[in-house]
Amino acid sequence: MIGLIIRRLGQLVLLLFGISFIVFMSMHIAPGDPATIIGGPTASESDLEAIRDELGLNDPVLVQYADYIKGVVQGDFGFSYQTAQPVGEAIATRLPNTIKLATASMIVAVIIGIFAGMISAMKQNSWLDVTSTTFALAGVSIPNFWLGTMLILAFSVNLQWLPIGGLSEPFYTTEGFKQLILPAITLGTGSAALIARMARSSMLEVIRADYIRTAKAKGVKQRSIIWVHALRNAMIPVITVIGINFGGLLGGTIITEQVFAINGVGRLMIDAIASRDFPMVQGTVLLVAAIFVIVNLIVDIVYAVIDPRISYD
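That's the Nickel import system permease protein NikB sequence above. Prediction below.
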């Protein structure tokens, strides 16, 4: 396991290096001039040239990239072209909101998905199975921006039960908890549908296994068969879906943050791309890549904990 962690951390460094190079080159190839955005419509050509010299935009692209990597190695991700705020500080300010939203959404997705998948598998071809399958299909098909808008209209505008958006209050307060409900449902529905489909498929495969039939023949209670014998083995592929989705949610819940006016990493990334804020785009993309690799590493470790037969030697 230690060897696996060391290998994955080495892969993380190489992955971040490659992604940083691709993103850096893509941003510089794309049309547009950051100096024009920073200087504004009233800036003269001499002003724009001074801005380019200050930012190092007149240097060769490879020289700019080398300077950027030197700063990253030292923990300096540069400054935002728009606000002059350090990139690391801006991300650290927005990341807690994304973490809260992603965690709440995944809790909703796991509870609904696993429960629906198990019920669907245990009651195969029943009305519960049909309802669960229909829910999974709808959850995958409905766009987040439409679902979020409908929830706002229903529960915020018409019924006035919940706030429209924002995550300005701590989640452990009543108001903060209310602010999380609609975004978490909006974001968690799609993941819940995927988890439900995977849980159903995996549970159906497990409950038909020989050791489950043996347990039934020995007179083991149905509850014990499901929770002790079947669920643990059925969870292995489900954990993969949970891990991948959670990594994606932490990487930036872009659409949901836009709909509910949440100042998270996803919204920060969109604003940075629109304003051609090179350092901010690169910093947020590196964060997303790092999160994906770390989450996948955690998933592999959980595999080994759940199923001792899995070995990474």
